[in-house]
Write a structure and sequence with these properties.
Layout (H helix, E strand, L loop, with lengths): L4 E7 L9 H8 L7 H13 L6 H16 L3 E5 L6 H10 L4 E6 L5 H15 L4 E4 L7 H15 L8 E8 L3 H5 L4 H19 L6 E7 L19 H10 L4 E5 L8 H4 L1 H12 L3 E4 L7 H18 L3
Parallel strand pairs: 1-2, 1-3, 3-4, 5-6, 5-7, 7-8
Helix pairs in contact: 3-12, 4-5, 6-8, 6-12
């Protein structure tokens, strides 16, 4: 990358103060306030993991490491909560940035994140070029990092002949997939790439693998009607594994890059309790967080975007 370039790592977002939950949920719900019961349930989940998601702090750490590696300014932004893209693009412009390379921290849903930064630049009237990464879930460095994470969990398995791997990603409304979004295809392809690499590195360490979509939303559809969510969900998958005689499962959340409430509550608390009910030992592959593997993947993606767009 060259002088005048800067990088924005943009995530979905989270809060660091539980009093900000009403505003955050209102943003998620496109301006509609969350009903009291939804707000209470989300607050309960945050409290169960210590009262705060570590996501923003992790992303800031990742940005510092990536900045040192690339030699250009790197900042974090959130699509749905502070720091918003508007504030971040203004800061980078004040530092002399001429081009912003956007790398979404949602590797299978990149488009909406790139558009959020482009919209922020346009609204601010800034003379900044924006080049954004497309879906990068099968970047070789990312596949390798996830495979190594899965292997660390497999190291604890006592019965490989009765062990399965479940690769998980956040569920989306079925209507989004039916509208042509490639998310499901991207997730499944990433899972297959990681499974293949794990088999190369650790043959015979597990029986089979599958995909589950976790963390289905708590919202309803238009008119209060139930909303269909992409599946199979994690509970359904665990039930099937128990029926098949599996005694250990490694859950590998390859749809996520870092620890946050969907990992620390939905997997470490809720899913683990389901597994215990079924007589299955659940081991979670560690999140990548600010690891060397994730930083290497982000560096590859950002450099690739910068090089492919050149000076056009």
């Amino acid at each position: 990358m060259k002088s005048g370039d800067a990088v924005i790592l943009i995530a979905h977002g989270t809060v660091e103060d539980l009093d900000d939950l009403p505003e955050f949920l209102k943003n998620i719900r496109r301006g509609h306030a969350a009903p009291p019961e939804l707000l209470a349930e989300v607050r309960r989940r945050y409290e169960a993991i210590g009262g705060r998601s570590p996501l923003n702090a992790i992303n800031r750490d990742v940005a510092k490491r990536l900045e040192n590696r690339l030699g250009v300014p790197v900042r974090t932004a959130n699509r749905l909560f502070r720091p918003y893209p508007e504030a971040v693009v203004a800061e980078l412009a004040s530092l002399g940035a001429e081009r912003i390379v956007v790398v979404p921290l949602a590797q299978h849903s990149a488009a909406i994140y790139g558009e959020a930064v482009k919209d922020a630049v346009k609204k601010a009237g800034l003379d900044l070029r924006v080049d954004a990464a497309t879906n990068w879930g099968r970047t070789p460095e990312l596949t390798e990092a996830f495979a190594r994470s899965v292997m660390s969990a497999l190291d604890e398995v006592s019965e490989p002949e009765r062990t399965s791997i479940l690769f998980t990603a956040h569920s989306l409304p079925v209507s989004v997939i039916e509208g042509g979004d490639p998310y499901e295809t991207e997730v499944r392809a990433s899972a297959e790439a990681v499974a293949e690499r794990v088999r190369e590195l650790a043959p015979g360490r597990f029986v089979d693998h599958g995909v589950a979509f976790q963390s289905q939303g708590m919202s309803t559809g238009p008119g209060g009607r139930p909303m269909a969510w992409l599946g199979p969900d994690l509970r359904t998958r665990l039930d099937a594994l128990a029926a098949a005689g599996r005694k250990e499962v490694v859950v590998a959340p390859i749809g996520f890059l870092a620890d946050h409430v969907e990992i620390l509550y939905d997997l470490d608390i809720e899913a683990r309790s389901w597994a215990e009910e079924l007589g299955i030992t659940l081991r979670r592959a560690p999140s990548l967080n600010a690891s060397d593997g994730l930083v290497a993947a982000l560096a590859s993606v950002a450099s690739g975007v910068a090089a492919s767009h050149g000076d056009e």
